[in-house]
Amino acid sequence: MFIPATAFGANDRVLTGHIGVGGMGRGNLGKFLDNAVAVCDVDSKHAENAAKIVLDKKGREVEIFGDYRKLLDRKDIDAVVVSTPDHWHAITTIHACQAGKDVYCEKPLSLTIAEGRKMVEAARANKRIVQTGSMQRSSDNFRRACELVRNGYIGKVHTVHVGLANANDPGKLPADSEAPANLNYDFWLGPAKVRPYNEKRVHYNFRFWWDYSGGQMTNWGAHHIDIAHWGLGKDDSGPLSVHAEQVAYHPEMAHEVPEACRITYDYGDGVKMIVGQGQKDIKMGTRFIGDKGEIYVNRGVFQPSSEEIGAIKLKDSDIHLIDSNNHHQNFLKCMETRELPICDVEVGHRTATACHLGNISCRLQRKIEWDPVAEKINGDDEAAEMTHRAHRAPYVLG
C-alpha cells in the first residue's frame, strides 16, 4: 500500500489527497471521487462533510487530516488537489512537490508574484506535474476563439477587453469574536499576519481581503486574463506596463479589494489589454478586437463579429492548441504521460502575475513598469516590495 499507484502502470488507479475541502474543494473532490483516499481541512466540519461525500457516493471511507503535512506523509498518494484559500496555495503546492506528489492547484495560482515563481521552480526541480485550475482552457468555445485569434483570422489584434465580475459584497463586518471550536484558526491564518477572528473574513469571504487574496482581479482575472494570454500567445511572457484608473472601493470599507477599476496593460507589440470591473463598455468575459473582425467569448458564449469568421475551419498548417474537454482528466492523463498539462504551473504563474500587477497598480493608483523576462518592477521600490510577502513563522516555506 505504500508504493504509489502510478508505479503499476496506466491502468491502475491514481490515488489523490485533497487539501482544503470547503466550497471549491468539494467541487474538485467531486471530479476525483474514484481517486480520493484522503481529505484535509483546518475546519473539521469541512473535512467530515467531504469524507461523507465519498462514503455516500462511492461506499468508501477516506482518511481525514487536519494537518496537510501528515497527508503528504502517505507514500501511497500520487497527487494532491489544493483548494485552500489563496494564501495557502504556494506552501502546500511546494511541499507536495518536494514530497513527490503531482498537484492540481486551484486558481489563482499564488498570492504574490514571488510565490508563483517559487512554485514553478519546485515543480521543475522535483519533476512534478502541476495543473492550475483555470479550467476555461478545457472548454471548446474558448479554445476555438483562441485558435482563430492566434492564426490571424480576425487580422492583427490591437485590443483585448477583459471583463470582471462586480464585487459580491459580504456585507457589514460584525464584531470580532472567538473562532468556532471546529476551526483551527491559527492554522487557517497560516502564513498571514495574526488578527482577531471575524466570520466575514474566513472561508469564502477570504477573497475580499489582501492578506488572503486579490478580489475579483485574481478570482475572475485568473480565468479571463488567462484566455487573453492564450489567444495572444503570451503564456511565457507578460505586459511591459500596467496602469490602473477609475479605481473605486467600498465606501465603508466592508472589504479591502476594489469594487471598480479600469486597467490598461501594454504588451509592447501594439496590443493593449483593458481589464474592466464595473465598466459599461466591457462585459464579463474576453473580447479580442482585430483589424478584420472580433471574437467575444465567455462561458457558454462564442460570438464572432461575422458568420464568415464563425464558419472558419482550421487548416492542417494552422496553430492547433491543446484540445482538452475535461480539465481534471487532462491532469490525470498528464500524470501518466508526464507531458505538461493544458494549464501548467508556468502558465498559471504568468496569468496570476498579470492579476497581481493589476492589483498593485490599483492599490498605488499609478502606472508601473514591468520586466517580464527578469520578472521585476522597474523604477518603483514601493511597488516592487509588493511582489512578495514575508510568511509568518512557523508557516513558512522550507
From TrEMBL:
Superkingdom as given in the UniProt entry: Bacteria
Gene Ontology molecular functions: nucleotide binding
Residues annotated as domain Gfo/Idh/MocA-like oxidoreductase N-terminal: 18-133
Residue ranges of every copy of the Gfo/Idh/MocA-like oxidoreductase bacterial type C-terminal domain listed in the record: 177-396
InterPro entries: Gfo/Idh/MocA-like_OxRdtase_N, Gfo/Idh/MocA_oxidrdct_glycsds, Gfo/Idh/MocA_OxRdtase_bact_C, NAD(P)-bd_dom_sf
Coiled coil (residue ranges): none
Stated name of the protein: Dehydrogenase
Organism (species): Blastopirellula marina
Lineage: Bacteria, Pseudomonadati, Planctomycetota, Planctomycetia, Pirellulales
